[in-house]
Design brief:
Number of helices: 11
Radius of gyration: 24 Å
Order of helices and strands: EHEHEHEHHHEHEHEHHEH
Distance between the termini: 45 Å
Shape: elongated
Length: about 290
């Protein structure tokens, strides 16, 4: 049933607002028939800025999702919303309070602590540089250093996946698979448990490639998009994956996020991007 009422979601954060935004997006995805308007109010660190934002939310009868860490700003938000009858979710405070209860340690209450330019941040930058350097099999030596190696025929999302996983502090190299093409010897030298073979459904790949050719102003009926050639490529790739003994994932109906999650699960890897300790003596949780 279609609902023409617009739901106004206000994300309020003292930093970049990514955490609350993800929650808002996950909520909106559950209601494709509902009209949403998402307002992001980020780097809110003063009472004046917060009051202005809360007033805007009140005027729009908005739902508020906030990740404020300052106790005074959290209290101001709670009081304002209670008095105004506004729905709000405090994303951080309950968990932060529970950690304090269990450990007896007080939180730093530092806005944007997740985004410190610390050792973990620079590891992520290095991982992204690695993904760019070893994209499309530019240098086979990268396969020996990579945490993950992605294999796949053209248009199976190798490059986007490499960059997405690099943002999780993982070194990713990828190699395009073409029938009868030379497979670098390094592929056979690495642990197959680090390798993921990406595949797709022929008809979906056919559509993707045709659209790609059209976007370039080229003939969509070229050999690149020919359905028989695509089937040949996929057969060659799948036979190669079987020889290697690697994980095989069909990306036909998967988003980049879903595929990345399946890769992490299959290879028993963790998302390292949230490890924020700079203490070299602290054991790495992964």
């Amino acid at each position: 049933m279609e609902n023409k009422e617009t739901i106004n979601l206000f994300v309020i954060s003292d930093s970049a607002g990514e955490t609350a935004t993800k929650l808002a997006q996950a909520t909106m995805a559950q209601f494709p028939a509902v009209n949403f308007c998402l307002y992001r109010r980020t780097f809110i660190r003063s009472r004046e800025a917060l009051i202005k934002t809360l007033a805007d939310a009140k005027e729009a009868n908005g739902l508020i999702l906030h990740t404020l860490i300052s106790e005074s700003l959290v209290e101001l938000t709670n009081v304002f919303c209670e008095q105004s009858g506004l729905y709000n979710i405090d994303v951080l405070t309950p968990t932060v309070d529970e950690v304090t209860r269990r450990t007896g340690i007080l939180p730093s209450r530092e806005p944007g602590a997740l985004h410190h330019l610390n050792e973990n941040y620079f590891r992520r930058i290095k991982a992204m540089e690695f993904a760019v350097k070893y994209d499309d099999g530019k240098d086979p030596r990268g396969f020996l250093e990579a945490d993950i190696i992605l294999l796949g025929v053209s248009r199976t999302s190798k490059t986007p996946l490499s960059l997405f996983l690099a943002n999780k502090n993982l070194k990713v190299a990828n190699l395009p698979i073409v029938p009868q093409a030379h497979i670098p010897k390094q592929i056979w030298e690495v642990d197959p448990k680090k390798i993921v073979g990406l595949t797709n459904d022929p008809d979906i790949l056919n559509t993707i490639r045709k659209e790609r050719m059209i976007s370039y102003g080229l003939n969509p009926e070229s050999a690149y998009a020919n359905i028989d050639k695509i089937r040949e490529e996929l057969t060659f790739a799948n036979e190669l994956y079987q020889k290697i003994g690697c994980v095989i994932i069909n990306v036909a109906s998967l988003s980049i996020e879903e595929t990345a999650s399946m890769i992490l699960n299959a290879l028993k890897l963790e998302d390292h991007s949230y490890y924020i300790s700079d203490n070299e003596d602290t054991p790495h949780p992964f």
